[in-house]
Amino acid sequence: MKRIENATSRQVTFCKRRNGLLKKAFELSVLCDAEVGLIVFSPRGKLYEFASAASLQKTIDRYKSYTRENLSNKAIQQQDIQQVKADALSLANRLEALEKSKRKFLGENLEDCSVEELHSLEVKLEKSLHVIRGKKTQLLEQQIAKLKEKERTLLKDNKELREKQRDIQPPPVAPAVTRCLPPWPRNLPAPCNDDVDVETELYIGLPGRERSANRDSG
Fold first, then answer.
1. CATH entry 3.40.1810.10 includes domain 1-53
2. How far apart are alpha carbons 113 and 115 in whole angstroms?
3. Dihedral sign, CA of 25, 26, 31, 37?
4. Rounded to an integer, what distance in angstroms lies between the CA atom of residue 40 and that of residue 25?
5. 179 exposed, middle or buried (CB, 10 Å; 0-12, 13-18, 19+)?
């Protein structure tokens, strides 16, 4: 595509394309409900314009306002980007300083430290140890208190169980009494389980005379 050299042909083509362009702008505004503004200058400097709004100046003002806000937003975004970069650089420097301090606390890279720096590091370590020991003591005291509370609870439960067991315990049963026979005399023969004939005598009279009667009969 190149410029038409013949002036007459160029003017005819301009008129046709201009009318087609104005028609397309009108169709775009109607079909799509878009705000369209069109400005065309002919080769001879004549102005042709189309505006779907009340006036072309209104569309131009809207365009200027939009571009101004857009440029302002871009400037703000650029400032925000610069601020983010500066913050990132500052955080990187702080992180590097913290890493160096951490290595020193671990006893590394102490060759370049002066006496004052080592003394300051020692003081910081002592403060840290004091805080850590205090926290450790606090946790141990809390654990001991919990264990004592648990012990009291267990003792209380044990006492209640004993009382309940005492309430439901049956009454004691009297032990069985076993009668023991006196020992058998040593000068007498031991009794046996065989049948033994027993002789019985009946004596009538005063007591003591049965002995004399037995002697007389003997």
1. yes
2. 7
3. positive
4. 12
5. exposed
Report the predicted TM-score, pTM, of the whole model to 2 decimal places.
0.34
pLDDT tens, position by position, 124-171: 888 888 889 999 999 999 999 999 999 999 999 998 888 888 877 666
User: pLDDT, tens digit, for every residue of 67-109?
Assistant: 877 777 777 777 778 888 888 888 888 888 888 888 877 777 7
- Give the C-alpha separation, 72 to 88, whole Å: 24
Which 8-state DSSP code applies to residue 131?
Answer: H
The domain spans of the chain are 1-53, 55-111, 113-167
Q: Which among 181, 180, 201 has a CA at the least distance from the CA of 191?
A: 181
Report the distance separating Cα 134 and Cα 97, nearest Å.
28
Q: Apex CA 47: angle with CA 45 and CA 53, to 5°?
A: 160
SS3 135: helix
Q: φ, ψ for residue 5 (rounded to 5)?
A: -75, -35
Q: Are 51 and 59 in contact (CB under 8 A)?
A: yes
